[in-house]
Each structure stands twice: as structure tokens, then as C-alpha cells.
Write a structure and sequence with these properties.
single chain, about 325 residues, alpha+beta, two-stranded antiparallel sheet, about 15% strand, globular
């Protein structure tokens, strides 16, 4: 059975608004007409996007019956695997989640936050990243280098700087380790979607140029590390991601396996986050992460096809 986790409060949803997306390199343009009224937004208190009842009837491709079935499937999986998932379809604004407000160790997924905070720090100082910072950022994201992450974590202000950066990006369910071990940061799938929205949409503290710089690193991750949420991508799709994986001594050597990112192509455009813990090994952990994202996006795409097939009114 999965172990208990600390859950962040789920606030009520307050409004509907238009989502205006910034196209990434190689990504399709926005918005699909259905997107205008489909996306739920939040005020300063209601910070959790993944409330299925908030999605307006008739606008969401994943219908109530299929959503219930999919939730039941993941409930069964959650009896033996400890995970949290959140997905948003940027074509329609539709969302799906399971355990999205549960905190998990971030492992190397924390490096994406460190990079976003580094770029924000430079922009606050009225400058671009230095050549040295850019080279370190590439090592940190493309190859998941831990040593350079230590340096960049210091550069953003260590734990206090990370906490301030998390607040700036609206990551209210994310907590840095008090001793400065960035890999032991705890975060939620919901917060990771919020961070991705800050990088791929016009919703965060970064400039257009800053967002593009972060995305450039995410979209050039070393091929051997392109797994997890990338499982939903077609061969010609744009994939930007950061994965995290580690056995944890304080959990008896069981594995944390995380994957967050963006996938876009002719037939899809998603923000995805899966966090997991207590897994027996690296390989089966990746397989579990890929299984849940493929299940969810597959259901969304089936729903979208059914929606397009309905007669016009």
C-alpha cells in the first residue's frame, strides 16, 4: 500500500478565462477555438487547477463517464504504486489529475525550478545569463549534472533564494529542504504544471526571452534521458522535459522516479507531470510513469476524436 503523504489544501475555482499560449519552437500555434472558454483560471487564493468539476460541460473532450473510468483505473494502480499526476491539454484547456496535490521528493526535477529561478535572478539584475551560467545550465538540464546544480543553487540564494523563487512562480505546494539539499525539495504535480505554464505560456515572472531560453534547454535533453512524459510523443513532436530519478536511502533504497514536461505536434499539445516514490527499481519505475501518462493522454485523445465526430448544432 502507498505510504501517506502531506497534501496541500485544494482551494475553490473562481473564474473562467482565455488561455493565450506562446508558441514554442516547432510547436503549433494557438488557440483552438474551444480553448477560449475551456480553461479554468485561479485567483491569488485558488491556486490548484485540477478540479474536474470546474471544467464546463460541453467544452471538455474527456467526458464524465470516461473520466470516472480512468480515475478508477488509476485508483487500482495507486494501491501498489505511490504517484501523483497532472495533465493539461493546451488545445482545449482540459485537465486531468490523480493525486496532483500530494508532495513527493523532487529529485532532479528540482533542477528545472533552479534554472527558471536563475533566469529570473538575471532578469531582475537587468542582464542575460553569463556564458558560464549558460554552460552550467546546459550541463544541469541536458545531462542532469549534480555538481553544477550545487553551484547554481548557491547562485540563486540557496534555500532562502529557492523559497523566494517558488513564491514568485506560485509554487505554493513546493518546499525546499531546510538543509539545502535541493534533491530533497518536495513538490506536487500541480505545482509542476504551474511551473510549466510559466515557461510555455505567458503566465509567469519571466520575459518572453527568458522563457524561450529555459525551453531551449528543456528541448535539448540528452537522448538517453528522454523518457517518461516523452512516451506520449510522436516521432516529429517537440519534447521539452526534465526527469528525476534516485534511490533513497531513507526509504530503504526504493526509487523516486519523476518526469515533467511539454509535448506538442500535429495531433497533440500537452503539459504533463508525474511524480512517484517507493518504486522497486529504475526500469519498472519509468515503465509505471510512462504507463500512466499514455493512459491519460490516450483517453483525452479518444474523447477529442469523439467530440470532433459529433454533428454540428
Amino acid at each position: 500500500m502507498p505510504r501517506a503523504r502531506t497534501n496541500t489544501a485544494v482551494a475553490s475555482v473562481t473564474a473562467l478565462a482565455m488561455l493565450v499560449a506562446l508558441p514554442a519552437s516547432g510547436a503549433p500555434s494557438h488557440p483552438d477555438p474551444r480553448m477560449v472558454e475551456a480553461l479554468v483560471t485561479w485567483d491569488d487564493v485558488a491556486l490548484e487547477p485540477f478540479d474536474p468539476v470546474a471544467e464546463p460541460s460541453g467544452q471538455v473532450p474527456l467526458g464524465t463517464e470516461r473520466r470516472t473510468e480512468l480515475t478508477a483505473e488509476l485508483d487500482v494502480l495507486a494501491e501498489s504504486h505511490d504517484f501523483g499526476l497532472a495533465v493539461q491539454d493546451l488545445r482545449t484547456g482540459a485537465t486531468f489529475s490523480h493525486g496532483a496535490h500530494t508532495r513527493f521528493p523532487a529529485a532532479s526535477v528540482a533542477k528545472l525550478s533552479v534554472l527558471a529561478m536563475l533566469v529570473r535572478t538575471a532578469e531582475q539584475e537587468g542582464r542575460d545569463l553569463t556564458d558560464g551560467e549558460r554552460a552550467q545550465a546546459e550541463q544541469m538540464i541536458r545531462y542532469s549534472d549534480n555538481e553544477v546544480t550545487d553551484d547554481l543553487y548557491d547562485r540563486i540564494g540557496f534555500t532562502e533564494g529557492f523559497q523566494e523563487g517558488a513564491e514568485a512562480f506560485g509554487l505554493h505546494g513546493t518546499e525546499p529542504h531546510p538543509g539545502g539539499r535541493w534533491g530533497s525539495t518536495t513538490t506536487t504535480a500541480s505545482d509542476q504544471i504551474r511551473l510549466l505554464r510559466a515557461l510555455y505560456l505567458e503566465e509567469g515572472p519571466l520575459t518572453r526571452e527568458g522563457r524561450a531560453e529555459v525551453r531551449g534547454f528543456m528541448e535539448s535533453v540528452a537522448p538517453e534521458q528522454v523518457w517518461g512524459v516523452a512516451a506520449v510523443a510522436g516521432p516529429d513532436d517537440t519534447v521539452g522535459l526534465k526527469n528525476g530519478w534516485t534511490p533513497r536511502e531513507d526509504d530503504g533504497g526504493l526509487w523516486t522516479i519523476n518526469s515533467v514536461g511539454y509535448v506538442a505536434g500535429q495531433d497533440r499539445e500537452y503539459l504533463l507531470a508525474v511524480l512517484s516514490d517507493g518504486l522497486s527499481d529504475y526500469g519498472s519505475g519509468i515503465a509505471m510513469v510512462e504507463d500512466v501518462v499514455v493512459r491519460v493522454t490516450g483517453a483525452m485523445e479518444e474523447g477529442a476524436e469523439a467530440d470532433e465526430a459529433r454533428p454540428a448544432r
